[in-house]
Design a protein that fits this description.
Blueprint: E1 4-8, H1 20-30, E2 34-40, H2 50-54, E3 62-63, E4 66-75, H3 87-90, E5 95-99, H4 110-122, E6 128-129, H5 141-150, E7 154-158, H6 170-182, E8 187-190, H7 203-211, H8 224-235
Parallel strand pairs: 1-2, 2-4, 4-5, 5-6, 6-7, 7-8
Antiparallel strand pairs: 3-4
Helix pairs in contact: 4-5, 5-6
């Protein structure tokens, strides 16, 4: 059981089906102590307006005992590693995830994908790379894992990739876990939930990391303090409401 989910979507991303309130109810049922709302960045076709991200300041930090992180799943836009996240949005966020989505970055080739992802990692803006195992965007996994470890950026193992979102991801995810382990890097688990019932579903992530003996202390979802310390280290920002988590 991992009590943190770092990748969920609400109805603000209009191909999703649950509200923040829905997630709180289901998080308590599923034993989740903290989660991040990471709706799609503004360049996505059905993404929320950028005010959605700026106005996250009105959310309570803790709702019915469950901690809520303010996040985004931004889009990698180009070879330079730019993301669709301006400074006004960044200032309001606790967590920035970024990844490739076909509607924003059309797949090209392994060299281009690798260059773009490393540039994003090196930018200093992004905390986690989402679903890097997507077979539609082949990458140099060893180079990405080494860059992520060097810049203290986590690579995500995305549970939904194994079920319906990105068929064919499993071999790449095995290779990513192994490469991150060897580079002494960090992993993040994400349910990539688009409906509240799936929050905290990590069975495929756990199956792979257990098989490859990946150290739990290097998984950001291990405890609330793991993700909070990681974010504090990266951003130099302490969230006072979470001091007791």
């Amino acid at each position: 059981m991992y009590p943190i989910d770092l990748h969920v979507h609400t109805i603000a991303s209009t191909h999703s089906y649950s509200t923040l309130h829905d997630y709180i109810i289901q998080a308590k049922k599923n034993g989740i102590k903290m989660f991040a709302i990471t709706d799609h960045g503004p360049n996505m076709i059905d993404a929320p307006h950028y005010w959605h991200f700026i106005n996250m300041r009105i959310w309570p930090r803790i709702i019915d005992g469950v901690g809520v992180l303010r996040g985004i799943e931004a889009n990698i836009k180009n070879q330079q590693g730019e993301i669709d996240c301006n400074q006004s949005i960044i200032d309001e966020l606790d967590l920035i995830i970024a990844g490739f989505h076909e509607s924003v970055y059309v797949p090209t080739n392994k060299i281009h994908h690798t260059e773009a992802m490393i540039a994003t990692i090196a930018s200093g803006l992004v905390d986690i790379i989402s679903h890097p195992g997507n077979p539609k965007f082949p990458i140099d996994i060893l180079a990405i894992a080494e860059a992520a470890a060097y810049y203290n950026v986590a690579l995500e193992i995305n549970n939904s990739s194994f079920e319906y979102s990105r068929p064919g991801s499993e071999p790449n995810c095995y290779a990513i876990v192994e490469a991150v382990r060897n580079a002494n890097g960090r992993l993040a688990f994400g349910s990539d939930s688009h409906i509240a019932f799936n929050i905290g579903k990590f069975e495929h992530c756990i199956r792979i990391t257990n098989k490859l003996n990946f150290p739990e202390s290097f998984i950001l979802n291990f405890t609330p303090r793991c993700i909070l310390d990681f974010l504090e280290q990266r951003k130099g920002k302490i969230i006072n409401e979470f001091l007791d988590f």
